[in-house]
Structures are given as C-alpha cells and as structure tokens.
Amino acid sequence: MDTVNIDFVAIDKNWDKNIADYHFDIYHLSGWIAASAIVDKGKPQGIVAHYKNKKVFLPIIIRDINRENSNCEHTDAQYWDATSTYGYGGPLMDKSLTAAEVDIIMEAVRAALFTKGCVSLFMRLHPIINKEWIPTVGKALTHGLTLMSDLSKSAEEHWGETQNRHRRGIKKAVKMNVVTKIEQLTRENAVMFSSIYKETMAQVNASQYYFFDDDYFFNLLENLQDRIVLITAYQEDKAIASSIYTICKESGIMQFHLGGTLNAYTNLQPSKLITHVARDWGRENRYELLHLGGGVGAALDSLYEYKKGFSSQELLFKTYRLIVNPVKYAALVADSWFSESDLSSDFFPLYRKETTEEVALEIVQAEVLADIS
Hints:
- This protein has helices at 13-18, 30-40, 99-116, 155-160, 164-175, 187-203, 214-224, 270-284, 302-308, 326-334, 340-343, 357-370; strands spanning 5-9, 43-51, 54-65, 76-83, 92-93, 118-124, 139-150, 178-183, 228-235, 238-248, 253-261, 289-294, 313-323.
- The termini are far apart.
- It is globular, with a radius of gyration of 21 Å.
- Strands 1, 2, 3, 4, 5, 6, 7, 8, 9, 10, 11, 12 and 13 form a 13-stranded mixed beta sheet that branches.
- The longest helix has 18 residues, at 99-116.
- The protein has 2 domains: 5-144 and 317-353, Gcn5-related N-acetyltransferase (GNAT) (Aminopeptidase, 3-Layer(aba) Sandwich), CATH 3.40.630.30; 147-314 and 363-370, Gcn5-related N-acetyltransferase (GNAT) (Aminopeptidase), CATH 3.40.630.
- By secondary structure, it is of the alpha+beta class.
C-alpha cells in the first residue's frame, strides 16, 4: 500500500520555489505568510504531504493556546492550533489527485498534526483555487458568495456592467477633480496608506485587531513589493483615499486587500473611482480576474450589493475545519463559559470565540468601500 509521507518545513524562499509549479496565489507565498504571522501573532509553518509522487502543500500559522482568560488556572503551552493566512489561503494540491486520494492525505495530515500537539486546523479556502475541493476528512462550510470581475472583458463591457449608481459616483469624483495614482509600495506611501487606513478604522470603531502596525505594511514592502499595487485618490495633491491590491501574475489573479478614505472626503466617493481604476489596470496588464470579495459574513447585504455594482459574477466562499484532537478540543470548550447561541454558532475553533473579528473586518470593508449615494 502506498504511504503518505508528511514533512514539516520552513516557509521561506525555498518554499516559494517548491510551489511554483502549482496554481497558487499571493496568499501562499512566504512573504505574505510572514506578514500574516504578525497579524495573528503566530509562527509560519509549512506542511508538505507526499503520496504516489504527488504533493499537497498546506501553509499554516501556528498559534499557542493560552487559556488565561478561561476558568482554568493554567495555560496549555504544549498545545497549539493552526490557521491559514490573513486572506484566502487553503491547500495547494496536485491536480491529478482524486478526491479519495486527497482524503487519504488529509487523514495522514491529521495524524501528523496530532503527534505535534495540534488541537484544530482552520483554513479560509480560496474561492478560485479550492473551489472544486469537497473534503470528507474534516468539513468545509459554505458561508456565501463573493464577487469577481472578468478582466478578459473590454473597457466598454466593464462600463456596461457597472451599475448606474456607481457610474454616477465615479463621474462625481472625476468632476470634483479627484485623480488617481497607481504605484508600487514604498516606505513613504506605506506610511501614507497606514494613516488613511487607521483613520477609517477609528471612524468605524473597528477591533484593535485591525489597527495593523506599520511593520505589517513594511513587511509586505520588503517581501512582496512587486506583488502589491497601491492605488491612491488625490484632490488638489492631497491623498484622500487609498487601496491595496494584490497581484499574482502566475495565476492571473488580482484581489482587493485593504483600503481607507479620509472621513472628510467620503462624499466625493473616491473608493468607487479607485475600484474602477483597479479594474482598468488589471485588464490592461492582462490579469484574468479581479476578486472583490463578498458581503458581511458572506451575506447578501449592502456590501455585497456594492461590489455587485461592479460585477455580478459570483464565487463561493468556504472555510475548512478539522478537529485534530477531539478530547482536548472538548476540554478547551468546557473550560470556558459559552451561551447557547455561542455553542450553536459555526465559529471555529469555538474555544477561541471571544470577539467577532471576522465579521468586524467585513463591516470595516463595508464602511471603507461604501461611499454609497
């Protein structure tokens, strides 16, 4: 019988070389994972599963489990759990693997994680790269829809699918002499972006989790400068709004990452102009699609409708959950007090349920992008 060999490896430049032959996105690269580890206060870790000369790559971030806020009087430093990167991570798989073979591999991954002290594994699946994966080891939950713009369409087709309210917003920004600048990330404009972004976070009362330290942006600059596009809107030489987009030429994918608008200038609707310009830039630079994301918690809400104003092409957003150590998982849940609604929620891992950060991010994006008129 063929066996599965599991290697725990560093996520570094050698990792990047090894995934180069697979259909990957920026979220799978060492530079992105290093920056995400800053946000999640964890340690990057690569898992490579070998089976029948085929491979599966899982980039994860290891987080120690600290129960100091529970009813326990001790910490569980010997135990840890894993999450995917900030954004859309998920596994990279050999395309020739069958569903049954992937299940064999994931069962071996679970066993290997168990021996290392892992309690649970959570991954935000990539709506494009992982769209065909239906796991039976662990489970995937479908949360809702995300939206993408097909960049193979012409400028006329893109303008034609732009809803009238967005057209009006774009025209208003242009009429008010709002112009845009497209550039790579530098230390100077990273600080500028950070200032605008943080003002937006303060305005919407975002969780402290989202007040990213400048080191996060400097890390992106140092490791991924050629894979980041910064689009900034100016009025009279003043930067009034700015958005970061990720680009991956190998996969043809461009995605919105973060953005912000100065409070005094939201009436000019600069984010609509930025999104329009981003779509034009992606088309002109021969990317295949622009992934815009979805609504609050993937709901069909006003944020979803805002994004649908630029494109109606939909994808599914899913997350993957694997309880590696059921006994320890149950004990950790039992150590904390949860309401009935908490216990019936799909938050994972449940023992980490302290804030609603995932929803908070979507609310922040709603406020950042809204400029709704």
